[in-house]
């Protein structure tokens, strides 16, 4: 197995890190997989700060620790390029603008009882996001799928996600374990290394234990700190916790408020977990929003900083290197499934947003959505157009067509 590529010789400035992740925070629509895909375009393809193998290793590593995956990838990138200060800077810049935008929408929602009309802009952005993810998968696949065994594992991972409906994070971890065991010729002495794999899942199931006495900022901080410490997979798992705890058990929110909070989180770019800011604001105003946001993201910074030095050592170990390679195969499968699911949503006619799809608008908007996706793929592959520019063009087309 090849070792992890060394840290790039060109030293990236703090200003360059901050500028990139501030901008990504404001245009990174589409959820964690889209964020990672945009990171591949900006960090690997356009700037050459990391190799694709190294970037894939960071994606694999974040699946071994709890917390929002895409945010942790960005923190890892900062750590690789500028150490602990770079990790803190990158993570903060990726989170803070999205937090401010999410909080602003929460304030408007509470004041007016409604959400801004942003569906049209999002409609135009979604086909571009599909193109960004598909291109990222296309670029990463040759690095992850090198052998026939990789391809067989890839097919098995796809079947597990699509046909068996197994959560993606479990499929990725299982693919890593199985591939590593095969590479190690099923040596029974190393099975003990993976005895802890089920433990995170058990801890995750018990995350909701305990009941809050009151709904203040400190309660919100401790609740979301607990969730951020055991939240495996993506930020979308957060919604299930909130429904079970804050709606059904604590009664801090109503189901309608939770749905609106999720909607605001979907409307805004950046980490999906900034939905915690909306929940915090609904429960305890601005202090609650700040407390909830710090709580949900703080474990990610701590865990990435603690585990980042271990990634090069894992690549130097034949067994653990095979484990990372197996996870990378699962990552490509998850990307493909995400592209298909998002494409079904992104290529809907514009009129379907309000139930009024009919006649020429239906045909025109459907064709425009396809054209946006295909044109974005061509722009990314042929001319390497900046993904941010394509997202802004998509939003403008959606608003104009509306």
Topology (SSEs and partners):
Layout: H1 14-27, H2 32-46, H3 52-62, H4 69-112, H5 119-144, H6 148-162, H7 168-183, H8 198-205, H9 217-230, H10 237-249, H11 255-267, H12 275-307, H13 310-316, H14 318-346, H15 359-382, H16 387-401
Helix pairs in contact: 1-4, 2-4, 2-5, 3-4, 3-14, 4-12, 5-14, 5-15, 5-16, 6-7, 6-14, 7-14, 9-12, 11-12, 15-16
**Compute the gyration radius: what is it?**
21 Å
Domain module tally: 1
- Quick one: biggest sheet? none
Task: Give the overall form.
Answer: globular
Tell me the distance between the termini: 52 Å
Q: How do the helices and strands follow one another from N- to C-terminus?
A: HHHHHHHHHHHHHHHH
Number of helices: 16
The count of DSSP E runs of length 2 or more, i.e. the number of strands, is 0
Mean pLDDT reading: 79
Overall SS class: mainly alpha
The proportion of residues forming helix, as a percent range, comes to over 70%
Strand percentage lies at under 5%
What are the segments in which pLDDT stays under 50 over at least 5 consecutive residues? 1-9, 188-213, 355-362
